[in-house]
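So, is this right?
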Amino acid sequence: MLVSLGQVRQILGMRFSRFMVVVGCVLAFAKAAAQQALHEKTFRDWDKNKDGKLFKSELPQQVKRNFERVDADKSGFISLKEHVDFLTRNSNARNQNAKDWSGFKVIRDIRYAGTDHERQSLNFALPLKRKSNKPLPVIAYIHGGAWRAGNKNGGLNRLHEFLKSGEFAGVTIGYRLSQHAKWPAQIHDCKAAIRWIKANAKKYNLNGSRIAVHGTSAGGHLVAMLGTSAGVAKLDGLLGPYTEQSTTVRCVIDCFGPTNFLRMNDFEGRIDHDAVDSPESQLIGEAIQENKKLTLAANPISYVNKGDAPFLIIHGTKDMSVPYSQSVMLHKALNAACVPSVFLSVKGGGHGGSGGVLVERFRTFLDHYLLNKEGVVSDESIPVEKISRR
């Protein structure tokens, strides 16, 4: 039977289409398998006594509030299946609200420290269409999770609102959690990531002297530390291949981060921060009040001086996880040292939330310090109703 050239092309096209469908299915399966493996690893990390069950006492403080939702059969503990099912549902829900990254070059899992530890990696988003050919300033996001949970993977979505203008590049930084390594490993990781950005600035046409760092909760603590401790040898560390680079940043957006661990129990909250199993004690490696010297060395407020980066601080007045007073103390210390600091109080706000009117304040702050645009953000109290959770 004779077949025309057009028929041959049609047959090949159909086969190629089928091939691409198969490839797509394989990639989707691989992604799902990798996601499940990550969820199973988190389960094993939290399962302290290795009995295959997660009791509420074993969970990071920030995760305990979801215990009843995850314990589907109400057995009093979370099974591996319940854990994976819950996180998979949440991941699928987040994927449905995923941002459009078609206008960006996105590179994931860059090992910034020259190691094979999966946590010592960053994701990077570079806009394909820029407003100018000048090197782009960078916004780097650091996730929260009580230094015991969370990961970098959702960070770029938090920055999308700012990156879509084509005026910034975005980075989201992973770091070792407290079950992997104790303080100061976490800040060593973050500073190694900052050095990576600076060392690779020319390659990606970035402005290494214009890096803003933005973090929430434990991430707020780490970005505050980046803002106040540049040049402190013990905190800069020697991690990664680019130790000749400085760890200075241009400005800091600190959302409800701890700043003075030893004072956290002075105020009302739902966490006993002095307990040996508190997030802060787990980070330090022992009860914080039992090793005040090491604890003081982990406080961003301990390093405040006149040369620090400008701060924008956000905190809810009814935060029961990280007391509102933590940001009040940092703001006062920065002002006393003549460091530019703006404090936005969310009246009635709890632990979380960074949408609504705050995004406008963030943009004005970033435009001013990264793009030299006119604009002023002033201290103010914002009703929680104007803040939509993200």
